[in-house]
Amino acid sequence: MLQDRPYMRDSNERRRTSVLTWLISSIVAAYLMQSALVRVSAAGAGLVNALALSTAGLRAGHLWTLLTYGFLHDTGNLLQVIAYLLAIYFAGRELLPMLGARRFLAFYASSLVAGGLFWSALHWGRPAVAYGSSAGAAALVVLFACFFPNRETTQLLFFLPISFKPKHLAYLLLAFDLCGLVFYEIMGAASPFGASAHSVRLGGMAAGWLYYRYIHDSNWGFSRERAGVELPRWMKHRSPAKAIALPPPNPVLSTGHSGHLRAEVDRILDKINSDGFGSLSADEKRVLDEARDLIGRR
After folding, report:
1. What's the pTM value of the predicted model, to 2 decimals?
2. CA-CA distance, 144 to 138, in Å (whole number)?
3. Of 71, 104, 73, which Cα lies nearest the Cα of 208?
4. Pair (264, 203) in one structural domain
5. pLDDT band at 19; cut points 50, 70, 90
6. Packing angle between helix 43-51 and helix 19-40, nearest 10 degrees?
7. How many folded domains does the chain comprise?
8. Residue 240 lies in a domain
């Protein structure tokens, strides 16, 4: 049962490299390759033309750029790249065990696509180019804030400890990019914070909030718990309250027989391994608790 699973054993066996490590490594490798090519040959410009997001490229059918643009960065702004990598690392290490490897990668890829589509809609008639992992980083930060809105977090900022709550950071980023979108990007003016980054990040933030609100628990009804980070009240559509018929509670899982319990625990552990702990229902979590108590009494 529990002890038969390799990820439940207390041993020093080598673990597989996590998808978060592979993601960060791929971004760093792409940045180093891009920096080298830009400085030694004209191939750097060709790399940007092939992988960066542009309205001309999308019109030509280069749909892969909705993903690949997230691995290119401004080679003259190393501090920006480091900030994105730190956001991906600190938020990703908390979210990966909850989402699972496949769902984490799918979420990150979807956030890049969402940011790219929002940017493309605003710049469709302009010869513009966008690249950077800002959409994925912003999506992870917002999703982390939705799961842990009030967790006290302390980080070093220029060697000074700064304490904040994730929901406040999410609100600050949202306000910052909304102002940049309205006063610079939509007006066609050059933003001092990155001419094309605001809409990309806003698209990523929207992907993070929508995933938490509608997809994570696969609950498409209207009675689920509200997200910790929500839209402002003035942006919500008000409608008359209606009586909502709640679905009948899930039947209690049958765990009376030891053989049934073993089979049910095996199924639940397989689900954790594929989709993450956050995908479990309350009944499934209760079964794991009962199995753990049963093992402890032996």
Report:
1. 0.69
2. 10
3. 104
4. no
5. very high
6. 140
7. 2
8. no
